[in-house]
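G., the chain you wanted modeled:
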Amino acid sequence: MSGFDAELAAAQEALVRAMTADGPMPGGFDAEAVRAAAHGILLKRAGEVAGAWPALADSYGTSWKAVFTRWAAGRPTRGSFRDGWDFAREHRDDLEGDAARELSLAEVRWTYDGESPPRPRRASARRVPGGLAVQFRGRVRTFGGGPSG
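Predicted structure as tokens:
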């Protein structure tokens, strides 16, 4: 890699860090424009997470984007599924109804330590609001907690 290519790569990396992970503003960029672009990226992330976790997003109603973007600012994305799961875990005590059920069903299907990518479980059981979810060989059945997920 030439010196120019290395400098360009470093500048691009600094810009991405400033826009997505609350990194310092690199020199030579319009700070207001970078902040506006960063906010746009956070809103896009909120929409993508809402697609992966619809009950979670619905539980926050019109405040979803504001709550999620506040939480996500300074956190690099790990994909909409993991971002939603991390958010839901941090807000577990506030979740009710369908949002709590959505998290429980993810936890019955997948094992996730918060660091490594989620992996499918072979068998597990978790409480869901009003009942129990059981997963065996990729099939989930719920008992007393509404329809199967």
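The two ends are 50 Å apart (CA to CA).

Shout if anything looks off.
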